[in-house]
Write a structure and sequence with these properties.
Layout: E1 3-7, E2 15-21, E3 24-27, E4 35-37, E5 45-48, E6 51-54, E7 62-68, E8 71-74, E9 82-88, H1 94-107
């Protein structure tokens, strides 16, 4: 099963922005009709537990995203931050997860 990434809070009322199928990332809804994103160079982000920092070190960098289960929030806290993405489907490998988070941060102008 493919992993689908939606922009916003809900899968049924939000646009699907990314699709991860068989280790490949596609920009759009379908693998056969969407552009494949071939090169994603994750630089400038630090992934620590469920937090994403912009910079090299967690203690001196700004936290830009918070990941809580299948939801991605913009900012430090889930209860006071906007939800920017919803991830549904199979669990991603660490490498693919970092690439998807980088693309979400890029689309939301966090980096």
């Amino acid at each position: 099963m493919a992993t689908k990434i939606y922009r916003g809070k809900y899968a049924n009322s939000s646009d699907q922005i990314l699709l991860v199928d068989r280790g490949r990332i596609y920009r759009g809804k379908y693998a056969n009709s969407s552009d494949e994103i071939k090169r994603v160079d994750v630089k400038g982000l630090l992934f620590k537990d469920d937090k994403v920092y912009k910079g090299k070190y967690a203690n001196s960098s700004d936290q830009v995203m918070l990941i809580k289960g299948d939801r991605v929030y913009k900012g430090k806290y889930a209860n006071s931050s906007d939800q920017i993405a919803l991830i549904q489907g199979d669990r991603l490998t660490d490498d693919l997860h970092e690439k998807v988070m980088y693309l979400i941060a890029q689309q939301n102008m966090l980096i």
